[in-house]
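Good morning C.,

I know you're traveling, so I'll keep this short. The sequence:
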Amino acid sequence: MNLLEQAMKIPPKERVALAELILESIDYESNEVNKAWVDEVQNRIQSVADGQSELLDFNKLYAQD
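The tokens, ready to paste straight into the viewer:
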């Protein structure tokens, strides 16, 4: 019996928990990196809200070529 066949015998809630653990094990982004990205996005949002930065329209920018 292969691993998938064995896993399919596990109750659904336990399979979900197992799947989450497996996905976490292959997540290459550390918590520190993830936090740095979240902080960067929040800083950029605040910069736009404060009028310090301006958003560019991707379609307009590349339609000029």
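Safe travels,
E.
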